Amino acid sequence: MAVYFYTARPAALLDEFNARLIHRDEWKRIYTWAKSEDGTAFTHVADGWVDKAWLKPRIDSDKLAFNIFKPIDSPASAAVYSYYHGEIVEAFLRQLDLMFELVSSTPRCADGDIWA
Length: 116
Description:
It is built from 2 helices and 6 strands. By secondary structure, it is an alpha+beta fold. The longest helix is centred in the C-terminal third of the chain and has 18 residues, at about 80-95.
């Protein structure tokens, strides 16, 4: 259950995503995601979805990966998984499309996921 953004500059892609969460210009800002309290992961902020899971970034040599992490007290359901994956892809396609070449999403658990 991971999302992969393939790019020659994965660290720069993550840096730009972080910058867009707090950007002053309204048209550049990503309002739908927020960092976790410890700053290591992201959650969606829409009503009914906040803190249902977190996506934790990992920088690989050719991609920026996001693994899903469930809340401590409940599993991440298929609905949560699909919502979070769809929303992170939408945010990157809408705001950061020139910084990656390909995006893929796994349908089942992947290395680094904590979902059940």
